[in-house]
Fold:
Amino acid sequence: MGKLKTALANLATLADGIDKKGGKALGEMTSRATSVSQVGGRVAGGYELLYMYLKQKAVAGKVKIEAWQKDPLQAHLDPKVTEFIAHIEQARAELANVFKNYDQAATILVQTVTADIDRALDYSKQIEAMIAKKKKKLLQSAKYKTKIAAYEKNLNELGGKLNTLKVDVSGYRQGTQALGPNKIASLEIKTSTTIAQVLKVASIGLSRELDEIKNSSSNKRVAVLLKGYGKELKMIRTWVQEADSMESESEG
Structure:
């Protein structure tokens, strides 16, 4: 097997592996993101139940809940409110843990895919360098004159798609990291938390907000990109079959 065929075969194997390994890692992330959304829903539900309880308490005291908006929970503390706070914090701690599991899957996706993409791009450069040395002779070949132009174009297109995937995967994790820890930290509830802050979490629908992780457009884009170079990969495999004879003719 000549150097060109070896490099092309390695490139094809890596490109195929990026799709399979990346898809597996993305599937694991999706599963863990579901857990994030479910536990996030429990945190949101705790806030909602607490606000409903406080509203009922205000009605019992013949005042409107709006009059309490600036009050800290400490001002209306009772065993029930204390229990709500404890349950919310327990769920929030669990949310931090399941998000950590999700982030670990994101790390695996980034590390796995990025490393393989870098190796694939390196093989692409090697192939380009080999072709550059043989191109003059190949362009004189009736058999390979047209084919070499098509193969080169295909190689460039595959490299472009892999570079796009690399950028998207890197940016993907940055986005989820910014959303997760910051959001979870902002959900801490204490006796100094105001009733207006409780209402804010209860009314925005935290579970829907955390669903953005699960249904992120980045998720969908990465999934599409992982499978978006099938045409180029097919041609690379065709090129593998012709590489040795092409190399032989260019040296003849």
Observations:
- The mean pLDDT is 85.
- The helical segments are 3-60, 79-138, 145-186, 195-204, 206-214, 217-226, 230-251.
